[in-house]
Amino acid sequence: MTITILLAASLFAYIMAFVAGLSRLSRNIIIRKVGGFYVEVFRGTSLIVQLFWLYYAIPMLLNIQVASNWWIGVIAIGLNYGAYLSEVVRSSILSVDQGQTEAATALNMSSFQRMRFIIFPQAVRMMLPEFGNYTIQILKGTSLVSLIGLTDVLYYGDIIRSTNASITPIVYLVVLVFYFLLALPLIWLTRKGEEIAKKGAASQ
Amino acid sequence: MTAPIVQYRDVCKSFGDVEVLKGINLDINPAEKVAVIGPSGSGKTTIIRLLMTLEEPTSGDIVVDGKNLWKMEKNGDMVRANENHLRNVRGDIGMVFQHFNLFPHMTILENCMTAPVHVKKENKDEVRKRAVEMLERVGLGDKIDNYPSQLSGGQKQRVAMARAVVMRPKIMLFDEVTSALDPELVGEVLEVIRDLAQHEDMAMVLVTHEMDFALDIADKVLFLDEGVIAEQGSAKEVIEHSQNERLQSFLSRFRS
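Structure tokens for the assembled complex are given below, as produced in the milestone run.
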């Protein structure tokens, strides 16, 4: 359960990051404002409150079931971290050297071609390490879904603990180790990302 | 007398309150080699940046091959050019920058191929052939699969020139292309410019501090001072016969 939520929420967060990050750089002021509103709202409120809103508040207010618990977890985590990641997307694109845009203009590229062939590929390299970091954060964030009754690692730990309180330290140790083992490949990927970022970024 | 390929008519440019160019009038003929000299801050670089559409003039017109660069006709009125119009007019212009501005995520060959393939929609194999030939001509035939970070400054600048020439521009702009180089690397870059000047029939505008070199290859020399063209003519006229005191004192700094 932890792993499927991690994968789906990460994917959703990445998509939201690019959508929101690019809209905040849009020339259209409405798109820019909508993107900014999303980012500030989801960055400025806590993940657990967002989770409870989707799980308790909205169904009560509108009298509808939003989605299954699994989906609520994915959506809340994805929206929340998507907001943070969109700032990574935005700042990476802005940090590509101005000379790159000028050189692309001198080769008569359109603004779309400049973004697609020159700016974006360089920005993505710069994003990789931060994306790795946030994916580890998402992994840890998934432990919150135990609060809306999803049977993730922490939830199982709590169940075992409640039947035998004397082994509490051992249970939480196991949970700890479990999260760390899950994080290991992500840490490794982040390192790889940093190497790639070093190789391809503009350094003049 | 052929028609000029570029005409500046009363072109002014301000950055905020600072007037950088104060009414530039200038004709550049096809295949003409123009050197722009002058003290720093005189607006040399701005002149060519306006032509490359990297800056927009505050007033005045720039006409390229009979077409107004920064203005276009719409319902009988002349309005500010949109991106499409700019792309149509600037297609014949290429530029080499002081800081090379190679694309670091592409190999040398890819740097030279991206624009002809994606912008001009030319056949990829043909472009490759032309790009390789051009890279060989600037002495980098053995480096085509390297990345820019593996090259010296002089090599990077030679790639930048190859990249611009592969687009087959009618006008090439050089913006202080040797200023960021170590002194011992300047020669190899000037060599390439000389080769282009002698064997290509494109117009060239060189903004430079390499005085002797500029005077040597230029058909026409412009001395820019405080935003106006203070003197223009052949290298001989400008150097030997000019009465302009500021020009003489500027030149004397290069003759020690």
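The two ends of chain B are 40 Å apart (CA to CA). The first strand of chain B starts at residue 6 and ends at 15. Further analysis is deferred to the final report.
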